[in-house]
Amino acid sequence: MSQGRDVFIVSNSVDELGGVTTWSHQMARLLCERGHRVHIVGIAPVAPEIRQKLPQDLPYAMTTLYDTHPPRARRLHGVKGRLNAPERRRQAARRAKMRDKAETLSGLFRAAGPGAVVIVTQVWAMEWVALADTKGLSVIGMSHESFEASQKSTRGERVRRHYPEVDRLLVLTPEDADLWIRAGMENVDSMPNPLPFMPDSPAPRTAKVVASVGRLAFEKGMDLLLDAWADAAPHHPDWTLRIYGAGAEEPALRAHCSALGLDESVEWMGSTDDVLGALRGASVFAQASRAEGFPITLLEAMAAGLPVAAFDCAPGVREIVRHGEDGLLARLGNTMELAAHLDALMADADLRDRLGDTGFRTVRRYSSAEITDRWEELFAFLER
Length: 384
Description:
The protein is of the alpha/beta class and 384 residues long.
């Protein structure tokens, strides 16, 4: 299609550390390269310590609706709630401000050309889009986590509340799409995340390093990785675990690391802007997440040619990694099983090479060109 579309990508924030922001800016860039006009919209700003550093000269517009984070929505329960006048005033002021910000969104949407698309990456952001005027636009809602993970928080119920009316609800795997359909959502399809990079050759896999990349947050399971490392590391005293990431859990994780006696073999690398460089300096990739959607870090590790050892914590993981072919999967939370996989990979260079090279080839099915094609086909389909 020669004539580009206006595409709005609406998220909780434009620059919060994490996979959704990485995905949003990657898709924005890919769609711009295809001639579309992209505008990334965030609802609220985030604290400096959880903010991603973005390049200066982005080829697309960015807008954040609020100057400071809006107050939380609270439901006023029973007589006591109804009599809580200060809280009622606060909630009324919050709703008025929401309508005001939704009108700002409406203004952006009304200025869009024919065939415009709104992609809402997170269900909290959908609360503002739902109040805005989206007449004549295709609205695509997304859930960037597994069905199971969404059911463990209020997000599952909010997806059911806010997404039935959108043109398409996109989840990350066919397995998750089936679960949402069984839960009564009829407008569901799946769309995997695209590969952030596609190196020409796999990593050399010569360094005696196991790498892990992820926020230092409970769901990323770095504490479980340290437990597994405590089992595996004594058999491989010349190997190091490098943890790339930052987050609120760091002090507790470092204390846990010391308590396990691992300070000599674990390196805390902080956040990195050069994930591929970090991966190329390792020979094995480990992921011990408690919950995932469609983990970009797993795609990145395989694209770099590293064999992966991970918990089978979500359909997205099973979709990416084929156990015994291009990686090794352990049952969720089973740190002894994860340790055994790490042990096998550290002990056997041939196994590392076989799994790493296979992953390097198979992960190309998520190439950015293929995934961008699928998005453009969806845009054209929804416009009909």
